[in-house]
């Protein structure tokens, strides 16, 4: 099978298309034919080994897992003899720890795996496994979002941000989205009550305050946002900078305003599976949708990484595998 192999940290050019052995499922596994996956900033971070903290997970000197990629949507081609929940031909979406930059992958039946929403393409479903599975635990679990609160989403037009806007509205809050001029209408269409063009206005310099400030792109800091938080307000960042760790410790002991970070990718698979089923229900009810910016074939994944690293994508960048004729 074809796969993208990464044997050293570096620029997108370290990603190489190779022929590798097709995996065989164990008794408790399913073999999934991958139709689409996504390229996220996390993929770029693990490819570069930067921030360095990522290497404690992926390998200090070189990548331990040579096939990158964390999200997928596809079709089950084979099931192990002990598998009860899935059958051949099931259309699924999943979140896993590496390995989706390939035509096939084996996943445990008990993994973060669920039947795909019926009203989504494979690419849209794979996108849910990235941005939505990140935004939900940050807002629901870490910030304890409540109806009636005022929430600001910084980076509202990215993968995490587009889902965060929709989720914050679903939870009954007043949502302000921060994005560039070209994305204002997109963020409005997702349900934002207000939008701020960061090229023209700095939200930290206004007199508006919020119960939750969710920086979905890691472009702000707790110190710069502190004055924009209400008493007992919460600052969230998806980027584990060296600054936010001591701020989390400090604010957990002193003051009413908190800086918080969540390792959403390391949550138990059972929690992720529950969230996939939660999203399937919301999506099929028409309450959540994916935003797709661009699609690339697997062979052009280096170009996709270069585009994502520019930091201006709208929603998600999808990788389509050659054997997929169902997008």
UniProtKB/TrEMBL annotation:
Gene3D superfamilies: Medium-chain alcohol dehydrogenases, catalytic domain, NAD(P)-binding Rossmann-like Domain
InterPro entries listed in its UniProt record: ADH-like_N (IPR013154), Chloroplast_QOR (IPR052733), ER (IPR020843), GroES-like_sf (IPR011032), NAD(P)-bd_dom_sf (IPR036291)
Superkingdom of source: Bacteria
Residue ranges of domain Enoyl reductase (ER) in the record: 10-319
This protein's name: NAD(P)-dependent alcohol dehydrogenase
Lineage: Bacteria, Bacillati, Bacillota, Bacilli, Bacillales
């Amino acid at each position: 099978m074809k796969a993208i192999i990464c044997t050293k940290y570096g620029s997108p050019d370290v990603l190489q298309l190779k022929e590798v052995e097709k995996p065989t499922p164990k008794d408790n596994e399913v073999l999934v034919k991958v139709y689409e996956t996504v390229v996220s900033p996390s993929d770029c971070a693990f490819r570069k080994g930067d921030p360095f903290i990522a290497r404690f997970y992926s390998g200090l000197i070189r990548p331990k897992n040579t096939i990158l990629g964390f999200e997928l949507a596809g079709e089950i081609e084979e099931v192990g003899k002990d598998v009860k929940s899935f059958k051949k031909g099931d259309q699924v979406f999943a979140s896993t720890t590496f390995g989706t930059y390939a035509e096939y992958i084996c996943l445990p039946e008990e993994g973060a795996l669920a039947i795909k929403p019926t009203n989504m393409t494979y690419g849209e479903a794979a996108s849910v496994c990235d941005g939505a599975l990140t935004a939900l635990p940050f807002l629901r679990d870490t910030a304890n979002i409540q109806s009636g609160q005022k929430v600001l989403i910084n980076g509202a037009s990215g993968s995490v941000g587009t889902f965060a806007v929709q989720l914050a509205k679903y939870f009954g809050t007043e949502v302000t989205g921060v994005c560039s001029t070209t994305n204002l209408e997109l963020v409005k269409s997702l349900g934002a009550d207000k939008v701020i063009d960061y090229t023209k206005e700095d939200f930290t310099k206004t007199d508006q305050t919020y119960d939750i400030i969710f920086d979905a792109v890691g472009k702000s800091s707790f110190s710069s946002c502190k004055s924009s938080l209400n008493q007992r307000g919460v600052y969230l960042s998806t980027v584990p900078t060296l600054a936010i760790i001591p701020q989390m410790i400090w604010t957990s002991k002193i003051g009413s305003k908190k800086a918080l970070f969540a390792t959403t990718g390391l949550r138990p698979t059972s929690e992720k599976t529950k969230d996939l089923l939660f999203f399937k229900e919301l999506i099929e009810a028409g309450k959540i949708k994916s935003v797709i910016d661009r699609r690339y074939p697997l062979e052009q994944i280096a170009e996709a990484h270069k585009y994502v690293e520019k930091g201006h994508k709208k929603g998600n960048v999808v990788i389509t595998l050659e054997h997929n004729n169902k997008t």
